[in-house]
């Protein structure tokens, strides 16, 4: 059985309207994995997507104390993969004998499947990946601030048009408070914030939740203002899919291990009156690049 | 405003289509062929036919570029219904014969008591000769597919014959399942900003 839209998970996660032919879904790939090994296959998607959701959340630490301010931005984040993200050790599933551990591609690894020989000429097939060098996506973001406090909202939702996935939605919320207002002699702006993102799919094929707690610093200049931040991020991911391992099909509820990492950001924000743009580098599980453009007052 | 409209408005802003690249990925397609046998009396056999051309065609019915490999992952069996004595002891084997071709043992002689047989599928002990005969035909299908499916599908009719002796008397139905995997290549568009 080959269902449509082989790349439906990357589409759903990256929020890209890439089109595939009538190929299989990621669920076809995952079907070779029990919950013990599916985590290794999906791990690079969890870490990169989670890091992206926890990136590009701010462009300054200056949270205005006076007046009402609002920004609308389009944010794009890209996390790069290295060789270590491309493979993992998987175990043959079901009743295949003898059980074997082999190095196989992750979802971002080589597109070639791996064939394992068993007893009496039987063979077990591990799926290939999508051969991705990066994980990139974009989101719209609205930021409103006043009285030294800022609130951030991200939202995106659409229908994939397939029964395998259904509707996809992303919601991000954040709150930040300016700290430097209490220490006027600091000489730069300082703030602290908390951010939450939730990505979900109707069919529960993929659900991702991220949390980020951190401090931000920036120094204001007329046009180009440097900023940076340090945060502690967590990424939770779960997946519900049908495994075709052993004699029959089985619904797998996979709760992946929560990823916890420190996340450093350094960048600059360019102010051009009503318009602004930013660029930053991110250092966490992956090296990442973030850019954004927007309007606001 | 519906979510769909919001996405349509925002999609161009995401500029994502400019970093989509096409890749050829190997897709494993798992499927199975099932056959049911009857056992009656103190000795006997029951031949059943499977058309693997049809089975493989049904499995790969999608938009794929080529088939690179076909393999058998396992053979399973289960007791469907025992109408006879639970304590009946059975010794049985399964041979496979390609219609118009050779034959070989697929499952060597196995002895069991019906009361110990499970109604849930369990893996069977396989003979490599029988499996090789089956894979020979499946590989012909790979060649047929990759040559553009010109002409009729090669004859991949296989007769599975179950032969048994029973003490004191058998009256049951059982089922076998050949679980196979087709590895196909499909072209897909994936978003990769820094990829080739």
Describe what this molecule looks like in 3D.
The complex is a heterodimer of chains A (297) and B (196). Chain A is 10% helix and 51% strand. Chain A is built from 3 helices and 15 strands. Chain A has helices spanning 8-14, 26-30, 35-53; strands at 68-80, 87-91, 101-105, 114-117, 123-126, 134-146, 149-159, 167-178, 189-201, 207-218, 224-243, 250-255, 259-272, 275-283, 287-296. The longest helix of chain A is centred in the N-terminal third of the chain and has 19 residues, at 35-53. Chain A is elongated and about 75 Å long. The model of chain A is unreliable at 1-11 and 13-24 (pLDDT under 50). Chain B has 196 residues and is of the alpha+beta class. Helix content of chain B is 20%, strand content 55%. Chain B is built from 3 helices and 6 strands. In chain B, strand 3 and strand 4 form a beta hairpin. The longest helix of chain B has 19 residues, at 128-146. The two termini of chain B are 38 Å apart. Mean pLDDT of chain B is 85; it is low at 1-18. Chains A and B meet through helix 1, strand 1, strand 5, strand 6 and strand 7 of A and helix 1, strand 1, strand 2, strand 5 and helix 3 of B.
């Amino acid at each position: 059985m080959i269902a449509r839209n082989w790349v439906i998970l990357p589409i759903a996660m990256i929020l890209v309207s890439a089109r595939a032919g009538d190929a299989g879904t990621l669920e076809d790939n995952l079907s070779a994995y029990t919950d013990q090994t599916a985590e290794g296959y999906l791990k690079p998607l969890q870490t990169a997507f989670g890091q992206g959701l926890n990136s590009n959340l701010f462009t300054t630490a200056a949270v205005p104390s006076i007046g009402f301010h609002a920004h609308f931005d389009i944010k794009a984040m890209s996390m790069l993969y290295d060789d270590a993200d491309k493979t993992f050790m998987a175990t043959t599933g079901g009743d295949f004998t003898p059980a074997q551990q082999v190095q196989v591609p992750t979802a971002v690894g080589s597109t070639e499947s791996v064939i394992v020989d068993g007893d009496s000429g039987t063979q077990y097939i591990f799926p290939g990946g999508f051969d991705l060098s990066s994980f990139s996506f974009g989101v719209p973001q609205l930021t409103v601030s006043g009285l030294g406090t800022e609130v951030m909202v991200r939202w995106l939702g659409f229908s994939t048009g397939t029964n395998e996935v259904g509707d996809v939605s992303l919601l991000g919320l954040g709150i930040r408070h300016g700290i430097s207002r209490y220490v006027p002699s600091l000489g730069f702006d300082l703030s602290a914030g908390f951010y939450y993102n939730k990505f979900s799919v109707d069919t529960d094929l993929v659900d991702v939740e991220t949390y980020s707690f951190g401090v931000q610093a920036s120094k204001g200049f007329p046009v180009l203002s440097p900023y940076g931040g340090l945060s502690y991020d967590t990424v939770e991911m779960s997946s519900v899919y049908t495994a075709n391992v052993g004699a029959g099909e089985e619904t797998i509820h996979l709760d992946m291990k929560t990823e916890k990492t420190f996340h450093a950001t350094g960048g600059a924000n360019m102010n051009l009156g009503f318009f602004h743009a930013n660029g930053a580098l991110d250092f966490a599980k992956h090296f990442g690049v973030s850019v954004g453009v927007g309007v606001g007052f | 405003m519906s979510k769909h409209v919001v996405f349509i408005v925002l999609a161009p802003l995401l500029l994502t289509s400019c970093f989509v690249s096409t890749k050829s990925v190997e897709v494993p397609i798992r499927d199975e062929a099932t056959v049911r046998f009857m056992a009656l009396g103190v000795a006997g056999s029951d031949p059943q036919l499977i058309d693997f051309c049809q089975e493989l065609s049904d499995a790969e019915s999608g938009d794929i570029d080529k088939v690179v490999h076909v393999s058998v992952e396992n053979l399973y069996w289960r007791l469907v219904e025992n109408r006879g004595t639970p304590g009946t002891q059975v010794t049985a084997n399964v041979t496979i014969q390609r219609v118009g071709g050779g034959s070989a043992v697929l499952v060597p002689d196995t002895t069991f008591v019906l009361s110990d047989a499970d109604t849930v599928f369990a893996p069977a002990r396989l003979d490599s000769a029988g499996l090789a005969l089956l894979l020979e035909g499946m590989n012909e299908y790979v060649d047929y597919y990759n040559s553009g499916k010109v002409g009729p599908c090669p004859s991949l009719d296989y007769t599975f014959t179950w032969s048994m002796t029973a003490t004191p008397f058998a009256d049951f139905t059982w089922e076998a399942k050949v679980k196979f995997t087709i590895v196909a290549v499909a072209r897909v568009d994936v978003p990769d900003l820094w990829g080739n």
